[in-house]
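Reopening this ticket.

The earlier resolution said the output was attached, but the attachment link was broken on my side. Pasting everything inline this time so it's all in one place.
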Amino acid sequence: MKNLAIVYELLVRPSLGVRAASEKRSIALVLWIILFFSASVSVADLLIFSSPGLTFSLISLTWGGIFYFFFALIGLFLLSCILHFIAEGLSGEGKVLNFFVALGCSLLPGILTAPLSLILSAIGSLSLKTALYLISKMIIFYWVATLQILAIKEVYHLSSGRALLTYLIPPLGILFLFSTLLALLILTIVMGIIGVF
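Inline output:
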């Protein structure tokens, strides 16, 4: 399956598109998707959050795009490694390179942020524009998350429940860690106030 066919399948039939992307293992497709994703998010943020008197800066756009590109690439690499170990721990069988490609292709809906922000930039009210932009970004986030859960399911041959569990373990682990640290901090402060230490 060619790269454009994979992109089409990701938009129309996500499960088939994720499976095709993981089987083809096209790193070039992932890099192109990350590049367009980064440029789109950078343009969208400039269009929505720049003040009316501020001119559209090519330098800001370039540095923002470079930042988003490397942040997305490194984040995608780390996320694929972490989720790979968790999926294998839940009896999944798959290859990390296939998963990296499928996970990278799941960023495809993020490319829509620039066209959405261009449409929303015509709205005069900054608060309404910002609210609609954040709502549209949340919809895109859930779309990307759904594609990522499908990637876990397809690459590691897991059930939907185990794929969802694999996807939720890292954020729940981070939440548990920060909650524990916060509880220990509060306990230390309280103990210091009442004079136990």
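Reporter confirms the inline version is readable. The mean pLDDT is 85. DSSP finds eight helices and no strands in the chain.
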